[in-house]
Structure formats: C-alpha cells, structure tokens
Write a structure and sequence with these properties.
The protein is mainly beta. The chain contains no helices and four strands. β3 and β4 form a beta hairpin. It starts with 11 loop residues before the first strand and ends in a 5-residue tail after the last strand.
Length: 57
C-alpha cells in the first residue's frame, strides 16, 4: 500500500480529517485507521506528514 494522488474509484470512501477530504479504498481502510495527518513547518522543511498513531517522531 502506498500514498498516491489518483482519481476516485467506485470503491473509494471519502473521509474528512481536519477539513481535508481523504479518499481511501475499502481494501486499504484497515491500514490507515490510526494514521495522523499534519502539516509541519520546522527545521526539516514544510509539508504534510502522515504517520501511524503509534509511530515515533
């Protein structure tokens, strides 16, 4: 499973996280249930980060 920008498929479901619509296919739903999406602006740079709820920084 990877994170990609793609067109919506019929089995995709829209989930809203902090006002951002995320498309997730039914087959990948269980893999992303505890993910955290955040925007960073620090010494590492700027951008979105996606990490597992239990992952270390």
């Amino acid at each position: 499973m990877g994170v990609t920008l793609d067109e919506s498929n019929t089995d995709d479901k829209i989930h809203q996280v902090n006002g951002i619509d995320i498309l997730v296919s039914e087959k990948d739903k269980s893999h992303v249930q505890n993910f955290i999406i955040d925007f960073i602006d620090d010494f590492r740079g700027k951008g979105l980060i996606i990490q597992s709820d239990g992952a270390c920084c």
